[in-house]
Design brief:
The complex is a heterodimer of chains A (469) and B (343).
Chain A (H helix, E strand, L loop, with lengths): L1 E4 L9 E7 L6 E2 L4 E6 L4 E5 L4 E6 L5 E5 L3 E6 L8 H6 L14 H5 L31 E5 H15 L3 E5 L15 H5 L4 E3 L4 H13 L3 E5 L10 H9 L1 H4 L8 E6 L15 H5 L5 E3 L4 H13 L3 E6 L7 E5 L12 E4 L4 E5 L3 H14 L4 E5 L2 E3 L3 H11 L2 E8 L4 H12 L9 E5 L8 H7 L3 H11 L5
Parallel strand pairs in A: 10-11, 10-12, 12-13, 13-15, 14-15, 18-19, 18-21, 21-22
Antiparallel strand pairs in A: 1-8, 2-4, 2-7, 3-6, 4-5, 6-8, 9-16, 14-20, 17-19
Chain B lengths: L23 H26 L14 H8 L7 E4 L4 H6 L4 H8 L23 E4 L6 H15 L5 E6 L6 H12 L4 E7 L2 E2 L2 E2 H4 L16 E5 L3 H16 L5 E6 L17 H10 L2 H11 L5 H24 L19
Parallel strand pairs in B: 1-2, 1-3, 3-4, 4-8, 7-8
Antiparallel strand pairs in B: 5-6
The chains are: A alpha/beta (469), B alpha/beta (343).
């Protein structure tokens, strides 16, 4: 008796919906036969049998949501084995040795990004966690929206508003987006404005820059920012510098966007934080939002901005839902940090996904009697150092939190700014929380050791508060 | 990008430049334009020697027929983009000698107010999009300009110039692929001056017939005598018309020659004096056209001398202007980093 287990169809998938069985109990199956369909938030994947035999029992009814990865979903009786009676089948659970299934959805496995696409666990984050932007009208209502959909809404709204805005990138059209950010856009805007490119980052980034010089407003999606390294010459030498080199003639209104930073178990080449890289360059704006409202409001602002904007999203955040205000044309100013939590004892500065860890750390610190203030940078260039300095003047201590490496990093820049501008207010040297100074390892335990987390922030905060462990 | 929209360009069909046999006046115009580039570049070399122009300075001397011939079939809404050997292209698009020379001297009246220099000059007004210092980078950018034409339903064409050196860059082929896939109105003009800095084409290129480089992208190409302005014009006319009609990109390999080194600091020891001399004496684009004009009795020696004098006057004036123009105000250091936001 062989168990068929619920397959993990992406590096971050923890559960999924068993949407359909294509076999019934008593059917004979051969390796390669499609036996079921499983739905992730991005795609419906087919599941194939790996072993030969007779389906003896379907353990999970079709339509069941939230089936955990590795749960037994069916059993196969091998050659010569009698189709198992129910009691026997249950007993057979312990015999499972084979992960009997694999993803076999045509496009899913054909695409080069097969292993790259991730499904973040759908987390619900309460709106109360952050302080809402003070500019919102009294009595505004909110809709729970995933970051993925907030980004899509921002693109769609700006494309409706401005005919010169278009989206190009790998798999943005027919495939509906490698991470499904562009879901539905091809249907609404057509293939003149939602453009599937070949896998040719250097080329299409340059083409986008040319289109921007030609007066259009391209949104260039990189499947991940790791691949944008192929295109970084066009981003920096062509997009960022040409306005200056032309004495102000050649504006380049373009957005380079896509997921940035570590994903989950995808190894060193697919897990890098480019915040510091782009933050270094005059002539660029660099945005790295944390929640869905900021993702929407800042992406709309980025698309309208007459400058080249690097918009860093996070793979592990796409599925996370936040409150997004129901206001027409929700556009946020670029370059303003946001106080996510007020506190008096220590300032925690973070951006993108690290904000979540900083907020978690602040909760833990509060339990230990330390009130942390959490500053979400939102934009790295321009960098709102004024808000950071003001916070440090109040708390006298600072911990910077970033997913990238320490050397020449975002934390280094902020620590330098604080020591230059608020030295007399500091009661302790600034501390930096960051990724370990190694390429990101694949092994689960090593990956965990390499990446910064909430506990690291708690420990650093206690150090700058001179509180013993 | 599939949907093709009807042309709504400002230059409607019929008002486009006709590119038939050049008239006598046009031929004299090409002579004047080529001579202006030649004398301008000689002057730039001279100012470089005097320390008035600094940094990298790549002279176009010898290659004048390419840009003048191609430009002769373009309309004002067509775009031009090139690499760093760009002074000739700027003059050919109608940018002023004064503005270009003042940029070379790094002065406030230069096209980029002194912030670009020899390799980085632009003119929105003349649809000249640079002036790019990274070998090959202008090719995808030019392809993107063509994309913007098609997106808008304009029938304007972009001319993307690059050299034999750039033709070995990967991004050139990434651009070829998309241009052909989406039938973009771009003409790739490869100025094959036969040396990528100091490396001859035979030493750098497995396929030295560069007009064939589009074959695997289904982009047709043609080899053209780039020292003959009339041949250049005829080939460019066909390629531009084809692109304008929505039939996609074309490659023109212009076989040409630069008389000077790669840049001002290059002694050009990688080729013989005789080789250069042979080109100068028997293939010079300006001398060849001059002979044609005289043989056909289109002009007299006196008329040519008058043109020469006029050109020298323009060049001398630009040199004086470029020395008199002030250095940019120190406050210019901080301007044009970002466009001030509209919102």
């Amino acid at each position: 008796m062989t168990d068929i287990l619920m397959p993990a169809l992406s590096p971050t998938m923890e559960e999924g919906t068993l949407s359909k069985w294509l076999v019934k109990e008593g059917d004979t199956v051969k390796p390669g036969d499609v036996i079921a369909e499983i739905e992730t938030d991005k795609a419906t994947m087919e599941v194939e049998a790996v072993d030969e035999g007779v389906i003896s029992k379907l353990m999970i009814p079709a339509g069941t949501e939230g089936v955990k990865v590795n749960a037994v979903i069916a059993q196969i009786a091998g050659e010569g084995e009698a189709p198992a009676p129910k009691a026997k089948a249950e007993k057979a659970n312990g015999e499972a040795k084979v992960d009997a299934v694999r993803g076999a959805g045509g496009t899913e496995t054909k695409a080069r990004n097969d292993g790259h696409r991730l499904r973040a666990p759908e987390q619900k984050v309460a709106a109360a966690e952050g302080l809402h932007d003070p500019t919102l009208p009294e009595g505004v209502t909110y809709t729970k929206t995933s970051i993925r959909d907030a980004l899509r809404d921002a693109i769609a709204e700006e494309m409706r508003r401005d005919e010169s805005v278009f989206l190009m990138g790998e798999e943005v059209g027919q495939y509906q987006g490698a991470y499904k950010v562009s879901r539905g856009l091809l249907e609404e805007f057509g293939d003149r404005r939602i453009i599937d490119t070949p896998i040719t980052e250097h080329g299409f980034a340059g083409l986008g820059v040319g289109a921007a010089f030609g007066g259009l407003k391209p949104i260039v999606e990189f499947m991940t920012f790791n691949f944008a390294m192929q295109a970084i010459d066009q981003i920096i030498n062509s997009a960022a510098k040409t306005l200056y080199m032309s004495g102000g003639q050649m504006g380049c209104s373009i957005v380079f966007r896509g997921p940035n930073g570590a994903a989950s178990r995808v190894g060193a080449q697919h897990s890098q934080d480019y915040s510091a890289w782009y933050g270094h360059i005059p002539g660029l704006k660099v945005i790295a939002p944390y929640d869905a409202a900021d993702a929407k409001g800042l992406l709309k602002a980025a698309i309208r901005d007459p400058n080249p904007v690097v918009f860093l999203e996070h793979e592990l955040m796409y599925g996370v839902e936040f409150d997004v205000p129901n206001v027409d044309d929700f556009v946020l100013p670029i370059g303003k940090a946001r106080i996510r939590r007020e506190g008096t004892d220590v300032t925690l500065v973070a951006h993108s996904r690290m904000v979540k860890f900083a907020l978690d750390a602040a909760e833990e610190l509060a339990r230990q009697g330390i009130e942390a203030e959490v500053v979400d940078l939102r934009s790295l260039r321009p960098l709102d150092t004024a808000t950071v300095i003001e916070s440090v003047k109040k708390t006298n201590r600072i911990v910077t939190c970033e997913e990238g490496w320490r050397f020449f990093g975002v934390g280094a820049e902020i620590a330098a700014a604080v020591t230059e501008e608020a030295f007399d207010y500091l009661d302790a040297p600034p501390m930096r929380v960051h990724q370990k100074d190694v390429p990101l390892p694949y092994a689960a335990n090593l990956e965990k050791l390499s990446l910064p987390n909430a506990q690291d922030i708690v420990e650093a905060a206690k150090k700058v508060c001179y509180v013993a462990e | 990008m599939a949907a093709k929209k009807p042309a709504t360009s400002s230059a409607k069909a019929g008002t486009r430049k006709k590119a038939g046999e050049p008239s006598k006046a046009e031929l004299i115009g090409y002579y004047r334009d080529m001579l202006l580039i030649r004398r301008f570049e000689e002057k730039a070399g001279q100012l470089y020697g005097m320390g008035l122009i600094a940094g990298f300075c790549h002279l176009y001397i010898g290659q004048e027929a390419v840009v003048v011939g191609v430009q002769s079939v373009l309309d004002p809404d067509d775009q031009v983009i090139t690499g760093y050997r760009d002074h000739g292209h700027m003059l050919a698009t109608g940018m002023t000698a004064r503005g270009v020379m003042a940029e070379l001297t790094g002065r406030a009246d230069g096209y980029a107010r002194g912030k670009g220099g020899s390799m980085h000059m632009f003119s929105r007004e003349k649809n000249f999009f640079g002036g790019h210092g990274i070998v090959g980078a202008q090719v995808p950018i030019g392809t993107g300009l063509a994309f913007s034409n098609k997106y808008r339903g304009s029938d304007a064409v972009c001319i993307a110039y690059f050299g034999d050196g750039a033709s070995n860059q990967g991004q050139v082929y990434e651009a070829f692929n998309m241009a052909s896939l989406w039938k973009l109105p771009v003409v790739y003009v490869i100025e094959n001056n036969q040396y990528a800095m100091g490396t001859s084409i035979a030493r750098s290129s497995a396929e030295t017939e560069l007009f064939k480089r589009g074959i695997s992208f289904e982009i047709p190409g043609e080899l053209v005598d780039g020292m003959d302005v009339i041949a250049v014009r005829a080939a460019a006319a066909k390629a531009v018309a084809r692109a304008r009609e929505g039939e996609g990109p074309f490659i023109l390999e212009m076989k040409t020659y630069r008389y000077r080194g790669h840049s001002m600091s290059d002694p050009a020891k990688y080729r013989t004096r005789e080789e250069v001399q042979e080109m100068r004496e028997h293939h010079d684009p300006i001398e060849m056209l001059k002979k044609k004009l005289l043989d056909a009795k289109h002009v007299t020696e006196e008329e040519l001398k008058k043109i020469e004098a006029e050109v020298r006057e323009v060049v001398n004036d630009s040199a004086q202007f470029a020395q008199d123009s002030p250095e940019p105000d120190p406050s210019e250091l901080w301007t044009d980093v970002l466009v001030e936001s509209r919102t």
